[in-house]
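Worked example 2:
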Amino acid sequence: MVDKITEIFCTVDDFCYEFDKARDGHLLTKALNKKTRRRKSKMTESEVITILIIFHHKQFRNLKHFYINYVQKHLKAEFPQTVSYNRFVELHRKVFMQMSVFLKSQCLGSCTGISFIDSTPIKACHIKREKQNKVFTGLAQKGQCSMGWFYGFKLHIIINDMGEIIDFLFTQGNVDDRRPLKDKNFHKKHMSNRAHKT
């Protein structure tokens, strides 16, 4: 297991290095020169992403239980500078973009002939506070799902019959669940892999 963690970390760390290089190259000069107070964390982005990946490989259903009772107790040698769980939650929100790109570019499965697609809501805030929300103004939208009304986004996922993610897509909350099926770019990989296998 230790060798597997090291392998995952090295892959993620190489990706984060290239991602940061590409991101910094697209930032405005003014933004780069602007002095902003940034709290430096003891844990790197690569470590946070690695822990999140391991969590999905293990049989834990609760991230808090996994982090406190497994990572901090049994993986001290691999992650010697762990932070509190609340701080870890803040950090894993900050690596959302890096992890999404990493999953898209290196972790997707392939079509096996049978695929399933579904969507799930991602709430930006409680529906009653939608007009007060400023973080996702102009991005998040009011939508409806089987659980009722919500304010935020939707995550659409295609998986194969082995449970591997083939592709995923984020949309605004008011987007119809069937619309991604009309987006050729979304299921292009799914169709091309299927055509290649046949």
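The chain has two domains: 2-106, 115-197. The chain is about 45% helix and 20% strand.
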